[in-house]
Write a structure and sequence with these properties.
The chain is of the alpha/beta class and 327 residues long. It has helices at residues 34-48, 66-71, 93-106, 142-151, 161-172, 181-186, 195-201, 219-233, and strands at residues 11-14, 21-26, 57-61, 110-117, 124-126, 156-159, 205-213, 252-261, 268-269, 278-279, 284-287, 293-295, 300-303, 314-321. InterPro entries: AstE_AspA_cat, N-alpha-Ac-DABA_deacetylase.
């Protein structure tokens, strides 16, 4: 393999009036590229004068994981969007990226992180917890984050990421593992902390926007419109410069409540699932290698099904309707 990349390319537009500090990121996973071109389009609009920055600071990182992006795969040496934190003694490429990325997150007020996913399905936004003073993810920006999730324009919003991971960690911690650093990271209490979780831990807020399936031709447009709508939501550009989302559109709000790991390479799905396919109570989702059925414990939806997941990694998530009210 050629030499690993030795830098991050970061672009910043500093408005002459003070205002919000927005960070927009893409290609945290190297093969999730919908946001890469979208960021370039926004930069071109600002450079040409077609889009005017009224206030604040806009920072954009079009390729957060250049090694994974160069290799055209999700990870370079490990998943950057899990166990994201400053590493005084970096052990791999993603540790070195984290050491540069985390200060940018900490120095921002708001994050828009652009992703995509494996299976076909519509774009959706992921937001964080409700306001709380708990130990897992204390938070105080529920209203602002909810408003941002609505503003980007998707028809589906999902909550409950880190609390769901906490449940999975309890099970994963019971496994002895193979002694590898990858397995040790998966059993670390910080596993599950990615860009938005780190952002919230530093006092800010943000959303993950899943722009559709990796190769969806509409993905770059979803990402582009989301950046513009985020800028308008924060008052950083004039509303009349942006195609606003329909405020009367129906929005489905779901809560993740379970993550199921693949235990064996012979664990198999009952059929080819797509994200947000409906599940009936007791419906057979898959079968373990020993023949044990994997059944839906509630009526709801399957999220991020991954038929290629490695043993010990996330196989799929389960979601059900949320009782949260977004305003």
């Amino acid at each position: 393999m050629s030499q690993a990349p030795t830098h991050l390319r970061i672009h910043q537009f500093a408005g002459l009036k003070p205002g919000p500090r927005l960070l927009v990121t893409a290609a945290v996973h190297g093969n999730e590229v919908a946001g890469v071109g979208a960021i370039q389009r926004v930069m071109a609009l600002i450079d040409s004068g077609a889009l005017t920055l009224l206030q604040g600071t806009l920072t954009m990182i079009p390729i957060v994981n250049p090694l994974a992006h160069r290799l055209q795969r999700r990870e370079g040496e490990r998943n950057l969007n899990r166990n994201l934190r400053v590493n005084p003694i970096p052990q791999d490429f993603e540790d070195r990226i984290a050491n540069r990325l985390c200060p940018w997150l900490a120095d921002s007020d708001v994050l828009l992180d652009l992703h995509s996913f494996n299976n076909p399905g519509p774009a959706f936004a992921m937001l964080g917890p409700r306001d709380n003073d708990g130990d897992l993810e204390p938070f105080r920006h529920q209203a602002a984050e909810s408003a941002l999730a609505l503003a980007v324009g998707t028809g589906r919003i999902v909550e409950g990421w880190l609390s769901t991971y906490a449940l999975g960690l309890k099970r994963r911690a019971a496994n002895i593992g193979d002694g590898s650093r990858r397995m040790a990271l998966q059993q670390d209490p910080h596993y599950g902390v990615g860009t938005t979780e780190y952002m919230r831990s530093q006092g800010g807020y943000g959303i993950t926007l899943e722009c559709g399936q990796h190769a969806d031709p509409q993905g770059p447009e979803v990402a582009f419109q989301a950046i513009l709508r985020t800028l308008a939501q924060l008052g950083m550009v004039a509303p009349d410069q942006v195609q606003q989302a329909d405020p009367n559109r129906p929005v489905e709000l779901l809560q993740l409540y379970e993550v199921i790991d693949r235990a064996d390479v012979d664990d198999r799905f009952e059929r080819e699932w797509a994200s947000f396919d409906a599940l009936a109570l007791g419906e057979r989702i898959g079968t373990r290698a020993d023949g044990t059925p994997v059944l839906a414990p509630f009526a709801g939806r399957i999220v991020f099904p991954n038929s290629k997941a490695e043993p010990g990694h996330e196989w799929f998530y389960l979601a059900k309707p949320s009782d949260r009210v977004l305003t």
